[in-house]
Amino acid sequence: MTPDHRMIIVSRMSAGFDLLGQTLRAQQKEEPGSEAHTTLENQVFEILYYIACEGARVGMGVAEIRDMGMARGRLQ
């Protein structure tokens, strides 16, 4: 994998963390147990799965992915 390819994947992961934050904020506004809350919860898991798969493609471990997500959260 070239450094450019790795950078593209890491960039997509960053976008995934941004989307994750937006989805979590939207979910907090919905009534727990409602259809909208459940739908957003499912989206959260899909986004996390995507981020984990992309991280694995570039050889990142769970701790590195978590740290990246926490850093993204502090930047926003």
From TrEMBL:
It comes from the Bacteria. This is Uncharacterized protein. It comes from Alloyangia pacifica.
